[in-house]
Amino acid sequence: MSETNAGMNHDTASASPSTLSLVSRAAQDGAADAREAAARTWDSTSLFVKRFIYTSCYTISYGVVFPSAFLARSVPKDNAIVRGLIDGAEAAMLKVDELRSPALDSAGSEPSLSLA
What CA–CA distance (Å, rounded) separates 48 from 115? Predict the structure, then answer.
């Protein structure tokens, strides 16, 4: 019996390094596969998000710009509505300039517009 136990111990001792290396290699391969799967998932998710944002912005802008342009073209050119829209737009631009620009400098020249 002692010979059988010694034979078993010898077999398990020699099998352990190969089993441990097999398990170690499997864990390393699994980690590499998990990294690749995560990278593929991230790429496909980011592509979906980019397409969703692009499509949403395109749809919204088309939905706003097309009706606005259509209405603008349908209004006759020389009437009170058009003059009121032009005057209102000019007043709004002047107010924005006034809010964004500092007061007139000491020389009395008009301040330059800056986008900063």
Answer: 34
Q: Are 113 and 101 in contact (CB under 8 A)?
A: yes
Asked if residues 95 and 111 have their Cβ atoms less than 8 Å apart, the reply is no
Domain ranges of the chain: 2-100
Residue range 50-72, pLDDT digits in tens: 999 999 999 999 999 999 888 87
- Chain centroid, CA 86 distance in Å: 37
Tokens 């990278």 sit on residue: 39
C-alpha span between 110 and 94 (Å, rounded): 12
- Map tokens 């008009």 to a residue: 110
Give the tens place of pLDDT for each residue, 101-112: 875 544 455 555
